[in-house]
Amino acid sequence: MDGKGATESSNPNRVVESVPSAAVASASAPTKRMLAFHFLRALSRIHGAAGPARRRTRTIRRAAYSSMARATGPRRAWSRALLLQAQARARRSRAETSRRAAVLVRRRVVAGPAAAPAPARAAPVGGQASAAAARAALAPPPPPARQAGEPARSDALRRLVPGGAGMEYCSLLEETADYVRCLRAQVQLMQGLADLFSCQ
């Protein structure tokens, strides 16, 4: 991508105006703008980041899901579940960055002149407890027993929709419809962006 394209991709407000309206036609007027804004802002944060293609693909996919959740807000169970997952990933990333920085500092101290050997240190209990608590919070609750008259596909829907593991069937159908609608809008937005930048 040339310099002009890189500049535009880092400016969410400018690119939102350039996205064809058909790219997100399935979303309502306020939602499509918020969806485009949050997704482009997420892309601007990872623009130019080094790393293997697989990691970049995973990062873009997570950015797409997070932008969907942020555009929808906490009014839906699936968006709340995605936001919690994003927050947990951010906490783990910050903790990993801090741990690596501490390791580098200790190595520099040990490598200094006339430095005493670094004593063995046990892993911080608090960090392990925090990580375990985060994993427990993200673990989906066991699905409720299938009610009489529920189709077998209800189990598949509970696995598909974020936060749907413990939902009652009628609520699950409502959440699924909203989730699929936002997914369709997100796919159309990403396709519109791909078409837009491929023409530059």
UniProtKB/TrEMBL annotation:
One of its GO terms (biological process) is regulation of DNA-templated transcription. It is found in: Nucleus. Residues 38-88 form the IBH1-like N-terminal domain. Keywords: Nucleus, Transcription, Transcription regulation. It comes from the Eukaryota. Transmembrane segments: none annotated. Residues 1-20, 133-153 are annotated as: Disordered. One of its GO terms (cellular component) is nucleus. This is IBH1-like N-terminal domain-containing protein. It comes from Triticum aestivum.
